[in-house]
Amino acid sequence: MSLLKTSLERPTIYIDPKKCMGCRSCEIACAVEHSMSKTLFGAIFEKPTPKPRLKVVVADFFNVPLRCQHCEDAPCMKVCPTGAIKKSEEGFVILNTNKCIGCLMCVMACPFGHPKYEPEYKVVLKCDSCIERVREGREPACVEACPTKALKFGTLEEILDEIRKERAEELISGLKVPGIVYMKPVVEEKKKEERISPMDVYAAYLEVKWY
């Protein structure tokens, strides 16, 4: 099986910043999912405090839920000295907190700045794509909680098919009109007639010799 086909068939989360309104429901759902009680009310009183594995960041007027990219060739997995980071059968990059020594090597190696050291836990925490939920046939908690469907879960092929369908619906509904290019008209500016000010006339007369 080729690497390309493996990537297309691997479950992933698609993020559409245009649909994200920054409500942070995904962050709350993630924290609750990784709590002991698995309930919002119970998670509030837990110690250490349950932490989300993703973060909504504002960039160029867009809200972007940043999470682990679960890289094909994960740098964090390469630098971990204890082998705490492994790749699952689904292709998710999973961190075993029982093996983590908090050395922060993965934090420094990640090009997306995702793994985060949590002093309360004394280990690094990262997104695991809610692997247990996925194995039960459910969506990750963040995807399920998103009210605007800014997060989508599935294989890359499934997500691309869904995006194509959405774009097709936009086309037939008239929301977007592709293929039309509006050219900004180029108007040649007419030069304004130069006017001579009284001071210019006075200065010219000063240079005149009357003898």
From TrEMBL:
Instruction: Tell me the superkingdom of the source.
Output: Archaea
Q: One Pfam match, by short name?
A: Fer4_4
**Which InterPro entries does this one have?**
4Fe4S_Fe-S-bd (IPR017896), 4Fe4S_Fe_S_CS (IPR017900), ET_IronSulfur_Cluster-Binding (IPR050954)
Keywords, ordered alphabetically: 4Fe-4S, Electron transport, Iron, Iron-sulfur, Metal-binding, Repeat, Transport
| Gene Ontology MF terms | 4 iron, 4 sulfur cluster binding; metal ion binding; oxidoreductase activity
Task: State whether keyword Repeat applies.
Answer: yes
The residues covered by the 4Fe-4S ferredoxin-type domain are: 11-41, 58-90, 91-120
Question: Gene3D superfamilies per the record?
Answer: 3.30.70.20
Ranges in a coiled coil: none
PANTHER family (alphabetical): ANAEROBIC DIMETHYL SULFOXIDE REDUCTASE CHAIN B-RELATED, PROTEIN NRFC
Its name, as the record gives it, is 4Fe-4S cluster-binding protein
Species in which this protein is naturally found: Thermococcus barophilus (strain DSM 11836 / MP)
